[in-house]
Amino acid sequence: MKKVFGVLGDPIAHSISPLMHNAAFEALGMDCTYHAFRVEKKNLGDAIKGAKAMGFGGINLTVPLKEAATGLIESDHLAANIGAINTIDFKDGIRGYNTDGIGAQKTLEETGVEIEGKNVLILGAGGAARAIAFTFTEAGAKVNIANRTPERAMNLAAEIPRVNGFGLEVLDRCLEDTDILINTTTVGMDPNVDETIVTADQMHTGLTVFDIVYNPLKTKLLQEAEAAGATPVTGIMMLVYQGAEAFRIWTGVNPPVDVMKKAAMEALKL
Ligand code: ATR
Prior knowledge:
With 270 residues, the chain is α/β, with parallel strands linked by helices. It contains eleven helices and twelve strands. The chain has a six-stranded mixed sheet, with helices on both faces. Helix 9 (220-227) links the parallel strand 11 (208-211) and strand 12. The longest helix has 16 residues, at 236-251. The protein is globular and about 60 Å long. Residues 124-129, 147-149, 152, 184-187, 197 line the site of 2'-monophosphoadenosine-5'-diphosphate.
C-alpha cells in the first residue's frame, strides 16, 4: 500500500509541494504519494493526530499553521526557537522540524558560499527572516537584521544571541562589512518588479546577494547585484531545499533536488 504524505494549510490550492514531492517519489521509484489538505487552524491538532493514526509518512505545514503547531507537538530545538514548524515526522511519535532556514543555508552552500564565520545582513523581520536568522546564527554566522520598521528588527534580534536589529537608514555602513545580503521582504515581487531596497552603488564585488523572492526569478535586487559585480542567488532553490530537507527527514533518502527543482519551475511557470 502506498505511503501517504501531505501538506496542510489554509488556503492550500496553490501549493506546489505535491508536484515537487510526487516528482521526487516517482523519480526514485518509491511507493509513496503526497497530497494537499485544507485544514482550519482550530482543527490542526486533530488533523495531526489523524494523520499519525492513519499511518501517514509525514506532513508539511504552511500558512497559517506553522506557528500554531508549536503549542501542540514536540519539536527539535531549532523549530522551537524559531517558533514555527513546517515539517512533521511520525517515525518516533510526533516530532516537528523547521526546514525553512536550512533551505536558505543549502541554497547558499550549493553556490559555494559557506555560512560559518560570515557577516550576514537580513532585510525584513517577518517569518522568513526569523527562520533564517535563527538557523544562520546556529550555523556560526554573524547576523544583522535591517527592517523598514526598526522596532520589529530590534525585537527579533533581542531573541537571538549576538544578533543586532536596526532600521534601513544604517544600511550603507552595514553593507560595507557584509558578506551575504538576504532579502526576505516582498519588495521586488511581481507586479512590483522595479522595486529594490538596495541598489548596485551600495554593493561590493565580494558580496553574495540572495533574494528569497522567486517571482520573477531575476528580481531587481539581483539585477543590481549583477551590475555591481556581486554574486546573485535566486530564491527558487530555498523553496526546493526546504522541501528536499523534509523529504530527507521522512525517508532518510537523499532527495533528488534537480527533479524537485524542475517540478517547482514548471508548476510556477518560471
Ligand atoms: P513573512 O512572509 O516573512 O512572514 P511579513 O511578516 O509579511 O513576512 O513581513 C514582510 C516583511 O517585508 C516585513 O519585514 C516588512 O517590513 P515592515 O515590518 O516594516 O512592515 C517588509 N516589507 C514589506 N514591504 C516593504 C517595503 N515596501 N519596503 C520595505 N520593507 C517592506
